[in-house]
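Render this sequence as a predicted structure.
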Amino acid sequence: VVGLLIRFGIPETADFIEANKGEKRPQGPISEAIRTEWRAILLSALIRPGEQAAFYMLTTFAVLYGSKNLGLGKAFILNAVLVAAIVACFALPLFGYIADRIGRCMTYTGGAVCMMLFAFPYFALLNTRLPVAVVAGTIIIMLIHACLYGSQAAFIAESFPAHIRYSGASLGYQGASIIAGGPAPMVSLWLFETFHTAYAVAGYLAVMSFISATASLYLGRQKVRRELQTAWLSEPRRAGRATAP
């Protein structure tokens, strides 16, 4: 309900209104997005594995691991996650603001690198079985997740032209849920049962975060190229200068 009230109260952006006027409205936005922006769709999906794996690992595997294998108790682990989620409520808009100030690509890539570096220390803190260390580790990894999630929506959306933005962003965003978010809990459990150590799960999170960081850099470069091309095409033709292809 709150989301609907906010959405209905926000006007559309000027470029979206312009892109959907009369004959400019795309007849097949999904097919056009796949045909013309397949790289952006793929990269939008590939920037999310680190964020997706961390979230589902934190809310599923960590709860099972902490309560069953570390003997910390399910109630304690759930309360630690709850405290971290409350902190994230304030961190999400903060990182959104930071992304607006320094750029989405820089914010997101930095968050992905931090997630990659913190994967092993996070499980090391859990393995201490010390309540303070467990809560601290849970809060830190949730803060890093907030850095990713707080800048993610704008980063993905601005990577597509206005006339196919909804379709392109949706394909990339939901594609990551299929390849990264859904399998994360099952992969985590399989790794733990196979190697009998949580550090195998940490390695999985680190790899997923590395993929996110790499894809983020490429997605940012593609956005810059599009902006430069748009600026070139929008300039009035000067004498003796050929138009851009």
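Summary. The chain has a mean pLDDT of 87. The chain has one domain: 29-229.
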